[in-house]
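The methods section describes the discrete structure representation at length, but only in general terms. The central task, working out the structure tokens from the amino acid sequence alone, is never made concrete. Nothing conveys this as quickly as seeing an actual entry. For illustration, here is how one protein appears when written out as sequence plus structure tokens:
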Amino acid sequence: MLNPKTNNFLNPSSITVPSIPKKALSQRMQITDDLSKLLDILPSSIRNQIKDHPNCDRLVEVVMDLGRLPEARFPGEAIYLGENPVSASDLQYSIQRVGIFSGDNRAGIERTLHRISAIRNRTGDIIGLTCRVGRAVFGTISMIRDLVETGQSLLLLGRPGVGKTTALREIARVLADDFDKRVVIIDTSNEIAGDGDIPHPAIGRARRMQVATPELQHKVMIEAVENHMPEVIVIDEIGTELEALAARTIAERGVQLVGTAHGNRIENLMKNPTLSDLVGGIQAVTLGDDEARRRGSQKTVLERKAPPTFEIAIEMLERQKWVVHEDVAYTIDILLRNGEPNPQTRTVDENGEVQITQEEPDQTPNPASFGRGTGQMIQQPKGWRASGKMTPVSPFGSKKGNKLSSASEFDRLLDASWCQPEPKGDKVRVPGPNGEDFPVYIYPYGIGRSQLEQVIEVLNLPIVLTKDLDSADVVVALRSHLKNQSKLRQVAKARQVPIHGVKSNTIPQITRTLQRLLGMDEAKTPETADLRLFTRGSNDDELEALEEARLAVEQIVLPKGQPVELLPRSPKVRKMQHELVEHYRLQSDSFGEEPNRRLRIYPA
């Protein structure tokens, strides 16, 4: 496992978690619910049946829908209350005893945490009520008290009813009372600190700012920072893009954030375009050839856009089972590379003791699979080299690091590469137009064989590639290799084989070298070869784009009759791709918005 703070690898079995005060561990949770005040707003026929129920103290909510039997819901069960359906007068009895319903159709009972939510018909009349019991549970955050002390921003995730708001209320009280911090609660629905102008005692010394309408929550968040100098801001239900941007603005001003968001797991937040900025945002990045090759991935990959707004994320799977991501940036980077993060799982047993587990990953990560200094996982290389099937020809004594211990051993390796077995068969020579002997046998050194074969095939050149220097007519090598390889020049001179240098390992340079070698005039190249498609490109990206278009046409569009979409390219490169497609007498169109505009090739 990688330590994201130091970029060092740790043994998961040796990981230690900061100790949590024993007082917090052993403390029994104290619950305050003011249930009698909620029962007082219910009609007597419903109220009496709830009071007589043996699990009255575990009541979750009461549901009253017009024309249907009233229902009481407890953890794991729901029961009907009586045999008389709810009437309009029953609903009106309860409505008159609660506060004003706000723009989000929620009301409350003054100085309590209960929430009454309304269901309206098309004309705006209330035809249903959900009376939810609000409880202040003291000691519920013993599992994460050490994280609250760090001063880092915390994001709570979980399904409805798992206890996010209850934990948020307790975190605000602990930060205000135990750590003497200036805490401001943005209470949009009066659910954290209760209804009325005086907040519920459950929030301790924390201050509460009410929001007139849910649409103004992001403005109140900014107003709290500008006017009241908070050290901590507590936000419930961040659900819009404006609220996510306001949260980032607050975090960048050095204020600790504690909030909840819609989403069960951190993966849900990544896939939510509205809220993904809370975990840093996701963007598509086009890599260079070398970087894509080093990562072993495609050129277009997903990466984190910015540092996360919340440094710590907590997934509340159950009331007594929470999953903690102590470094959200590291978790997001791992998930974007199809890796498996290794978060902590924290539970509370029957005795109130907190149990912290962190399972050991199936395989210890290889340091080579991470980007240098980025903590980003990279896919492992594939093929013969990764599988271990590539073995050295023979051992040459000891090695120091990754280099051979002496220059003589390197010379022996170089000598072994001059003469490699070739398929049996005699050279066949055919007289050329000027009396030359064709084909010409070329020994390539430091040049991509596939690129040489491509040029030879397209231009129909009388050239054969060989791996045996003794049977070669000429050596074609990169100039950079020739400067450093005096041994190559000595061997070629001993065998009286001329050497032709290539400036760079690109198709245009290879084409010019082979044409000069054969004494061909570039201006007289047959038009069918359409050399403009190769010589026009001046860099590897353009050549790669043209090669991509050629392979798409010759391997999919022409033989299978299927349209093909290419990767996004710049306008200049797309124009070159269009010209190549016209050479095959096919149609192509550009579609999409920059920078993701790309080519689509249609069959004839």
In short: The radius of gyration is 36 Å. Residues 138-360 form a domain with the Rossmann fold fold (CATH 3.40.50.300). The chain is about 30% helix and 20% strand. Confidence is low (pLDDT under 50) at residues 1-28, 362-407, 522-538.
